[in-house]
Amino acid sequence: MARPKPAPFDKQKVVAENRRARFNYYIEETFEAGLALQGTEVKALRGGEGTIAESYAEVRGGQVMLINANIPEFSHGNRNNHEPKRPRKLLLHEREINKMLGAVERKGMTLVPLSVYFNSKGRAKIELALAKGKQSHDKRATIKDRDWKRDKARLMRDKG
């Protein structure tokens, strides 16, 4: 019996996306996690600011932390403004954390953020993936496949 496909995440407004992640990694499994943010961080994200291109996540002391994600200071923030690249706690269930910890320790996988978005309830969420790194020859094969699909679509459109 085939397993049902998991429901897609409820993405209303995507703030930041890590487009290179799908090129640099094989995505094995994705998780949706909440972000523990300060007030000025939420305001900066609502303004569409923030990058996760160079960021990653790691399990520390039973908690998953988002490292090196950049949420710039809020323009109208005062002295209570946040630090742009501080480690941020990700809110996950304990069994999800244990699953991630096992995959990272045993299989040598990486926790890569794919996108930061607001769901329909207005909560900041992050799509996190368990991923395995690609070798350079795998990346070349990905480029070759993508080019072939583009050429095939062009040929089908022209024959039409």
From TrEMBL:
PROSITE patterns: SSRP
Major localization listed first in the record, in broad terms: cytoplasm
InterPro entries in the cross-refs: SmpB, SsrA-bd_prot, SsrA-bd_prot_CS
Ranges in a coiled coil: none
Places the protein is found: Cytoplasm
Protein family: Belongs to the SmpB family.
Protein's name in the database: SsrA-binding protein
Originating species: Aurantiacibacter marinus
